[in-house]
Design goal:
3-stranded mixed beta sheet, alpha+beta, about 70 residues
């Protein structure tokens, strides 16, 4: 998995400290980003649900739970 490889390669540099989930509104969105964040103990700060500039929102626990349960 590309995301896991990226996080693993950055871990030795103490990066990343936060995640932003994009394309959360797409049919392909799943709980994978949430699982990655939980496994690596990296908070999700923002979720973007759409291509519009204003689509970036602070991550809400309810929205993250819905991503996992889809």
């Amino acid at each position: 998995d590309d995301a896991r490889t990226l996080v693993d390669s950055l871990a030795r540099h103490k990066l990343p400290s936060r995640l932003i989930v994009t394309h959360a509104d797409s049919a392909a969105a799943s709980g994978a980003p949430v699982g990655l964040a939980l496994t690596n103990r990296i908070p999700i700060s923002f979720v973007a649900a759409g291509p519009a500039l204003g689509a970036l929102r602070p991550a809400a626990p309810e929205a993250l739970a819905r991503m996992v349960l889809q």
